[in-house]
Amino acid sequence: MTNWLENTIREIETKMENEKSNRLIVACSGGVDSMVLLDIAQKLSDKNDWEIAVAHLNHSLRTDAKKDLEIINKFVSQKNIHILEKTVNIGKIAKENKIGIEEAGRIQRYKYFEKCLKKFSANVLLTAHHHDDQNETILMNLMRGGGVRGLSGIPKSNGQVFRPLLNVKKREIIDYANENEIPFSEDKTNAENQFLRNRVRNQLIPKMEEIFEREIDFNRTAEIFGKTSDFLHHHAEQLLERINDSGEKDKILLCLSDWKLLHSVEQFWVANKIFARFGQNLSENDFNQLQEFIQSKSHKTLQHKNFEIEIYREKIRFQKPMNTVKIYETIKEGQTVNSEWFSFLLENTEKPKEWNDNPNEEYIDLEKMKGESFLLRQWRAGDRIRPFGMEGTKSISDVLTDMKVEPSIRPRILVLADKNDIVWLCGYCLNNNYRINLYTKKIGRLKIRYDDR
User: Are 114 and 180 members of one domain?
Assistant: First the structure.
């Protein structure tokens, strides 16, 4: 048994033991790399009494792609191996999302792998990425100006996905396939130079090996930068935990002063962690845009796909967009309104024996109502209210500003209106005209609860 095969077997068994799993999935295209990996995994499953499945995704990029599945079916027909297969139109998906074929294929593969892991109740999925793939990936990332993450190349392990052949050379895989008479399909497009990866494989690397008179091997490079990347991830996680003032799951709050004390490298990796928490990858353009936004101290909101960024009173807030569903509810005495993000109550009551300072609860003189019912809605520009101690009225916008209410919260603040009058800026300010006094006979108790604060 060759050294690389012994190492591969040991790594797969260790991974399965660490994951406490007896179910294994092999991502298999039908090509020589994945068929060799499937053969190794199948023999290990017999030895260790594992259940094994094949995950095959047809990209619909070749007219003869169905032959790949035929080869897989023939190989597993006499073996106790489950087959999970699906066909997608990668060309169409790439066009619709305005991305390259290779990127679209990678995204769809890993989405499919995630579904397969759940369907098969497995904790480990093997892919057949090998030494030559690693060389190509690092060279491509280097040419694109990649940093620490890019020069880390393909990770050995990424959650449940494991790549046991990453240190194995292509020729060693082919030798194994020939010696063990393993069937496999040959993708003729691999010899074509339409795609960048093929040009790197077929043209650039052979030329580099000719010039340097040695084999290209970036595994050491990947290992060094991989460890550096791991350290930076860990360091950024610790920094974010220390400077995040928010105790809420869907919100991150940083002091501008803390952010400015970080080195630009630390800022990038902390931003990377923040974006990841909201399910988004951080690009260099995203980071540059964030830095410009912070430096401008704009009171506007920077929108991203899954979250928004806001700067207010020397704080940087990252949070999921708030629900902006319009509220327009007619309110009568004795009525309760419940919503996804608030609840409101209006009920008849007696004069309170004791007053509390709870801003979310107020008492009004119902005899001062001008209409037959109230209207509960979000406040809007032009709304005015008469606060306690004022002769005239004041705009709702100015009231909120004076009370230092953060801009991100304001769109969801409600008002209770009586025809053209604002009775209550809910949770913040009661109209003095509706306050109860010694002579009030009919009293209404108002109560609001916002679920987001």
Answer: yes
Residues 383-438 pLDDT 10s: 999 999 888 999 999 999 899 888 778 888 999 999 889 999 999 999 999 999 88
Statement to judge: residues 68 and 168 lie in one domain? yes
Taking the alpha carbons of 43, 13, 122, 48 in that order, is the dihedral positive or negative? positive
Contact 68, 184 (CB under 8 A): no
Beta strand extents in 76-165 (DSSP E only): 81-87, 124-126, 157-158, 161-162
Please tell me whether the overall predicted TM-score, pTM, comes out greater than 0.85 for this model. Answer: no
Supply angle C-alpha 395, 396, 402, rounded to 5: 95
* Residue 433 DSSP SS3: helix
Domain that holds residue 260: 244-319
- CA 70 to the chain's CA centroid: 36
How many domains does one find in the chain? 3
Q: Please check the confidence at residue 324 and state whether its pLDDT lies above 60.
A: no
Instruction: Check: CB of residue 125 under 8 Å from CB of residue 157.
Output: no
pLDDT at 439 over 70: yes
Neighbours of 420 (CB within 10 A): 9
| 241-295 pLDDT tens trace | 999 988 777 889 999 999 999 999 999 999 999 999 999 989 889 999 999 999 8
Question: Could you say which DSSP state residue 322 is in?
Answer: P
d(CA 296, CA 241): 25
pLDDT level of residue 328 (50, 70, 90 thresholds): confident
> What are the structure tokens assigned to 416, written together?
């209770």
- Whether residues 72 and 211 share a domain: the answer is yes
